């Protein structure tokens, strides 16, 4: 899917936003769904199976959001640790609900094999506004670095810090949507005072591996499992997906740590970011959630088998 170039209604072309533009943008954001109803209630239903850890709390203009993680109740220091994250971009719905679906339906299968740390919704304010950014117009998924400007990212970094060196796996669940081109990329260009260059949205699921540590058989195991649930994104005419070379069917690579991506928050052996396309006429919201859960299962199965 490709969109024509459009001008963004906030800011002056060629000039990055100041406080006035950020305030104008924030004034336009509206709560559209409930983190408490959709996410916290689902976590509450899992309290008999997991330890629920509050690893931080956001206070945004008088609204308070607890940051919650699900932790294996049978945690053992001799087992590897697997991190599952969703909702780093709050608008990417299946990342949140795919993580919860895995926790509810599949996590028990890994008891005694791995310690699970599941963070279903890293960005609850963004979840409620169906937005990519936090309330300060900052993308948490470019903020996983020292002195992070995004509290969502900083809190997750504090959560994983005591377990660094023990992570076998990190899978970060995302979506690529039509709104990336209709709203979020134009907004990014306007915020940073840069020209907006239209792109193409891939139709289907793909993964983003770490260019420093690609682990292509691992990436392919995830792709193969998800292909049984939903369709895999093909390369475009240039052999690319979102501007990056396809190195294996449905797989591209990013330098995740240098970009400050959530996928670089650990030193796990196996790392991937999933991307589904919920706006495709060939899929449904439930299928997207199922694809995310299937990706987590496949990632764990491969990592635990390969070691």
UniProtKB/TrEMBL annotation:
The keyword rRNA-binding does not apply. Residues 31-307 form the Peptidase M14 domain. InterPro entries: AstE_AspA_cat (IPR055438), Peptidase_M14 (IPR000834). Its cofactor is Zn(2+). The keyword GTP-binding does not apply. Pfam families: AstE_AspA_cat (PF24827). Keywords: Hydrolase, Metal-binding, Zinc. Belongs to the peptidase M14 family. This is M14 family metallocarboxypeptidase. It comes from Novilysobacter selenitireducens. The lineage of its organism: Bacteria, Pseudomonadati, Pseudomonadota, Gammaproteobacteria, Lysobacterales.
């Amino acid at each position: 899917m490709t969109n024509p170039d459009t001008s963004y209604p906030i800011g002056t072309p060629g000039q990055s936003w100041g406080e006035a533009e950020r305030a104008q943008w924030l004034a336009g954001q509206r709560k559209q769904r409930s983190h408490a109803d959709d996410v916290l209630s689902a976590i509450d239903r899992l309290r008999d199976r997991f330890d629920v850890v509050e690893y931080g709390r956001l206070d945004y203009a008088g609204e308070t959001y607890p940051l919650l993680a699900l932790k294996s109740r049978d945690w053992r220091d001799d087992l590897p640790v697997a991190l599952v994250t969703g909702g780093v971009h709050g608008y990417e719905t299946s990342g949140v609900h795919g993580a919860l679906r895995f926790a509810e339906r599949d996590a028990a299968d890994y008891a005694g094999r791995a310690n699970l740390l599941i963070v279903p919704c890293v960005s609850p304010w963004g979840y409620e506004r169906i937005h990519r950014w936090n309330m300060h117009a900052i993308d948490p998924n470019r903020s996983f670095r020292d002195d992070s400007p995004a509290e969502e990212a900083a809190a997750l970094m504090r959560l994983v810090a005591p377990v660094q060196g023990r992570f076998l796996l990190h899978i970060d669940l995302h979506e690529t949507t039509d709104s990336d081109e209709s709203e979020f990329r134009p907004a990014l260009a306007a915020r940073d005072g840069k020209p907006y260059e239209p792109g193409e949205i891939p139709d289907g699921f793909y993964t983003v591996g770490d260019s420093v540590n690609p682990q292509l058989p691992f990436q392919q195991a995830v792709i193969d499992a998800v292909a049984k649930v939903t369709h895999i994104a093909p390369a475009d005419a240039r052999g690319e997906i979102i501007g990056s070379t396809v190195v294996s069917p449905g797989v591209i690579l990013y330098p995740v740590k240098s970009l400050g991506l959530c996928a670089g928050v650990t030193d796990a052996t196996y790392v991937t970011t999933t991307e589904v396309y919920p706006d495709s006429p060939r899929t449904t919201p439930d299928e997207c959630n199922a694809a995310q859960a299937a990706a987590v299962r496949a990632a764990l199965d491969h990592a635990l088998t390969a070691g």
